[in-house]
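re: ur question from earlier - yeah i can do the single chain one, its not a big deal. heres the input i used so u can compare w yours
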Amino acid sequence: MPTTVEPPTVPAPVVTPGESTRTTRDPGYLVVCWNDPVNLMPYVTHVFQTVFGWDRRKAERHMLEVHNQGRSVLVRESLEEAQVHVHKLQGYSLQATLERDDA
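and the output i got, formated as tokens:
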């Protein structure tokens, strides 16, 4: 008669409420667009729609933030993704940078 073997039971980790299971959080990077005196507002809106696939309303909100406050944080991404977005925005002649987000 064949003997069946039960898989070993692994106890679930105990997590205290409010305690994170990760000891460190991966840093994110913020893609920031800065105001400039060259690009027109409809053009900036169009670029945001093209690069990020945003609808017109979201793109206009960020464009107005750039225009009125001098800058807008567009997205928070991994380093590689943030670099790609910054490169694309700069390719459209927008002033864009990335900043480390340690928050």
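The domain at 37-98 is CATH 3.30.1390.10 (Ribosomal Protein L30; Chain: A,). not sure if urs matches, ping me
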